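Side project, low priority. Logging it here so it doesn't get lost.
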Amino acid sequence: MSVEELEMDMEELSSAEDFLDYFEIDYEASIVHVNRLHILQRFHDYISEVEELPDDADKHRTLYREMLLGAYEDFVKSNALTEKVFKVFHMHEPQDTFVPISDLKL
């Protein structure tokens, strides 16, 4: 298998379960069910941190497998609120805004 074939295979995958099955990673369905989007986003984040992916397809696949396993294990050991994968978890509390009564118009 070439790197291009690996990439084409991955384009066909649509769920966290598909990715985990493709990379032959054992998983707990209940963990994936609750955290599937978080796992896939964390996997994407890990991939984006790699400056240069290996040219060798086997090494490329192994690296992807390790990153996906790491993403899955992040949510085995923790939870979405703690991991804060998505931007919404990084938003600050709403700010109080003061509007003087004189600025209110009917």
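Brief comment: DSSP finds five helices and no strands in the chain.
Revisit when time allows.
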